[in-house]
Design a protein that fits this description.
Largest sheet: 7 strands, mixed
Structural class: alpha/beta
Strand content: 15-25%
Number of strands: 7
CATH topology: Rossmann fold
CATH superfamily: Vaccinia Virus protein VP39
CATH class: Alpha Beta
Oligomer: single chain
Distance between the termini: 20 Å
Strand order of the largest sheet: 3-2-1-4-5-7-6
Length: 255
Amino acid sequence: MSVWNSSASEMRLTTHEKDWQEMAKLDPLWAILSAPEKQYNRWDYRAFFQTGEREVAALVAEAKELGYPARWGRALDFGCGIGRVTRALHTYFPECYGVDISSEMVRRAHEFAPGCHFHVNKEMNLRVFDDSYFDLIYSVIVLQHQPNRAVALAYVSELVRVLGRDGLLVFQLPSYIPVRNRIQGRRRVYTLLHRMGCNSNFLYRSLRLTPIRMVYAPEKEVLSVIRSCGGRVLNVRPDDRAGCPCESRTYYVSR
């Protein structure tokens, strides 16, 4: 894909990294799991990690229903944050890896999930991993927050690449965002004021602004990327992870 050589996308990824570094310090749990009532550090850590346990238990049930992966040895949590899902996956997989763009998130992930392996990834690829490396790959409410559609789809192709034969890749990505919601005015105001020198803590806590963006990719486009990379689509299910009025899909892929 041409995105690999796109300097504009690389510059956006650098800004994206800075935004998530700031959120990791301001309100890390809410940045990962954005329940409105939990904003401004209202998440209880125990309750937060329990959501990961329930999520992974449901994932495992779905995987067994599908009959994939063929092996249960190595798993990847793409966009791991502080390890909410990664450490839950470790109950089922001997080797668990987490990847995040924020070094602060990864630092905390090491604390909360010491038996797992974590990597800071600031590039538009997953070259840190070999082809066909993982038996299971999971990524939800992550690709939707990438700098743009091209970056999100580039990561989809990389997730397919590092998926092992007869493995299972489960990822979520919005398929449609209404035009009026694509403007994301609060994020744009945050970016403008931050560039003018306003403190991120003031912007977030006093003005209630965040740098978190939302992107989407039509289902047909996502399916095309998966298949062009050698992926085999097992299922596509609508979900509500992008919030109303957006439309979202969860994709189940093998090779």
